[in-house]
UniProtKB/TrEMBL annotation:
Family in the record: Belongs to the prokaryotic/mitochondrial release factor family.
GO cellular component: mitochondrion
Biological process annotations from GO: mitochondrial translation
Molecular-function GO terms, alphabetical: translation release factor activity
Domain Prokaryotic-type class I peptide chain release factors: residue ranges: 44-143
Protein name as it appears in the record: Uncharacterized peptide chain release factor-like protein, mitochondrial
Keyword Transmembrane listed: no
Domain of life: Eukaryota
Cellular location(s): Mitochondrion
Keywords: Mitochondrion, Transit peptide
InterPro entries: Mito_Transl_Release_Factor, Pep_chain_release_fac_I, Pep_chain_release_fac_I_sf
Amino acid sequence: MFAFRSYSPVSARFRFLRSFAGSCPSGVPIPKKNKLPPRPKWLIVEEEIDEKFLKGGRGPGGQKINKTNSKVQLTHKPTGLVVTCQYSRSQESNRKKAREILALKLEEQQNPENSRTAVLNLRKSMVKQSKAKKSNKKYKEIEAKRAEDKERRELEDRALLEGFSDDEPL
């Protein structure tokens, strides 16, 4: 009678991206930040990751960073991708952030045109184009108003000069 379909997160993301793939005409709305595709955490298999903890050398955290192994380096064995993260002083938050970065890079390698980073970059360019369009429109209106005022003043000046020349012969 009725067939129910269950969609995986991947196919749901593809359905979302259909309208945003490729070049976007000006009539296409900018995707909302809370409606972006999910982060691709399902791409990471713990057995395929080699994890190392290093002493951090740069960034915020002061002397504590130089003494502790809070920097995380993940190596994805099948692809050879290496990700290092020293986002904060906490080793746990650095592990989490490094896995997110690795997942995004893996997704970008597998599906570059429909990945989350591609959608984010597309959204960023659309927002930038929208702002530029609004700015250009604003300054065109200002320039048109200035030209109109200048033309009106010139007409008033001509009328004033013609009024003086009619009354008094030189």
